[in-house]
Write a sequence for this structure.
């Protein structure tokens, strides 16, 4: 698993080539304390696991800021390349 980003106690990762199944839709894995979930990149839907409503809101907000980079990271991992890190969540001032 390759780590993409880390912010506010949340770690976001993507599986690498050997771990990505052909039938899986593009998704990320989110870990926050004892919470974990798989979240679809395209629509932010929780595919498995669960997050608190606050953490889910933070992750979805981050995803909207970095959707194109997430798709690139997924494609890189699927092709066996190490995905680039993605900047953490930017909160408005």
């Amino acid at each position: 698993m390759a780590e993409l980003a880390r912010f506010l106690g949340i770690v976001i990762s993507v599986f690498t080539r050997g771990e990505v199944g052909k039938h899986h839709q593009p998704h990320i894995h989110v870990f926050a304390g004892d919470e974990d979930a798989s979240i679809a990149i395209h629509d932010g839907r929780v595919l498995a696991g669960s997050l608190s409503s606050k953490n889910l809101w933070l992750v979805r907000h981050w995803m909207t800021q970095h959707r194109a980079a997430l798709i690139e990271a997924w494609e890189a991992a699927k092709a066996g390349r190490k995905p680039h890190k993605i900047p953490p969540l930017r909160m408005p001032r």
